[in-house]
Structure formats: C-alpha cells, structure tokens
# Entry
Amino acid sequence: MFTQNREYQMDLTPIRNAMTIDVEDYFQVSAFASHIPRKSWATISCRVERNIDRILSLLDEKQAKATFFTLGWIAERYPSMVKRIVSNGHELASHGWAHQRVSDQEPQEFLDDIVRSKALLEDISGQQILGYRAPSFSISSNNLWALDLLEEAEYRYSSSIYPIHHDHYGMPNAPRFAFYPKNNGGLLEIPVTTVCLFNRNIPAGGGGYFRLWPYAFSHWLLQRLNRLENRSAIFYFHPWEIDYEQPRQQGLNVKTRFRHYVNLHRMEGRVKALTQDFSWDRMDRIFLE
# Structure
C-alpha cells in the first residue's frame, strides 16, 4: 500500500532531527472544542505571540532551526510574528486554517481549508509553503483521500499521521518512517517519531507524552532512534506548552485536565535540554533536499 522512503542519513554525525512547532493558542486545542466554541475565539486574549518569541530565542541560543506549522487564523492576526519566524531562518508550514480536524471535514471543505491557509502563509512570508500537518494528527486509514488533496493543492509533504494507538487519533499500522502513499512518488508523508519496543510503537516525538515521561526516558528513545536505527526524529510541541501561566479552563473532565496541564512548568527547560543534547533542523532540509 505504501512505499517507504529509504533515503535517510547515513553520513551525518550527529544525525539532524526535525524540530517542529504547531502554532496555535491554548484555547484552540481539540480537547477544548466542546468548552470553547470557535465563534468565541476572537473575544479571547491571545498569548501565542509572546510564547513564539520565547521559542525563537530558545532556538537561537543553540542555533537550532525548526519548522513552524502555523494556523491561518493565527497568521492572519499576527503577520509580523510570522515574518519573524521566517526571518530567523525557520521553515513556515501550514496547520490548516482554524484547527478543524480533517476527520470532521468533507473533501471539498478540506481542500478549501488547505488552499486558503497555504495562500495566506505564502502572501505573508513571500515563500512557498511545502508542508502541512493536520490538527490532532487527524489523517488516518478512514480519510486517506486527504493526502491526494494535499498533493493537488501542491504541498510537497505532510506530517499528519501518528503510527500509534490513541483514543483521539492514530494509525498504528502506518509505516514509522517517511513514506510515499503512492507508488509513483508525489506527496511524502512523514510520521511523528515512534520507537518500537516489545512489538509496540512507543510515542517518542513530543506532545503530552514528553511532558508526562521523565526527560531521561525521552532522551533515551531519541538517542536509540538516532544511534540504532540511524534515523532522524520528528519532535513537536505547542507554544502553549511552555506557558504555565495560561488561564485555566473550567469544567474539564479529569483526563482532559491532566493531559493538558501536566508538567507545563517543566516543558521549557526540557525543550532547552533537547536543543543541547541533539542536533535540530527544518523538515524541508532534512527530508526534501
């Protein structure tokens, strides 16, 4: 079904890993959708710009480069922030328009979304947008048509499939590493990193797992991937994850509250440690060049 991309790095020491940031604010996460409707977003004070500036400074300290998957909704309101991302040498990519899961959209609606967000980001940045990441990794075996539409919209790669078991997303039978959904090439899908232990894919690419597990375990997983499998990792986090002082949402169930707020106060320090312990670069330079 899939053609795996075997052109990975054999001659780089250390291996370059892909640092990625999903540019959205705390009130836009999918887990809050039933508590904070989209129609109220414009009335909420955004915190994303100050958090992005902290991230840019953090990356600059170690001269690390990253890919910023950015919502069109955010870019439209903070074009100067988008320009700072690009001027600092990072890759700008699309995260869709308003963080609507692909699984909640019809094909034409999805196509309109990815075309609109791509056009805006290109207008602001003056650069071609090559990459896309689906909100909440919401491309799976049930909607692989989305990959065809991404190719139609002239994206070069997607990082929208997470090969794990999860109650809200995941495609556990997908390849763990970059692959072409079509045998004749075209769009490249680059899954977020997992490490196979005891015949199970263990999430090793960031998000809530990175905040939950001890840093030493995450470090071990990434090091294992680089050294034993000779592969580049794809790591992701969100600006709100370094924002411990963000407003607390009321009325959440225990699971949602735990997942969103666990160890926020440790996140920035852990990301700094990653930039010291591993080599980081942009998605396009690692997987497309």
User: Anything to note?
Assistant: Confidence is low (pLDDT under 50) at residues 6-12. The chain has one domain: 3-7+14-31+43-287.
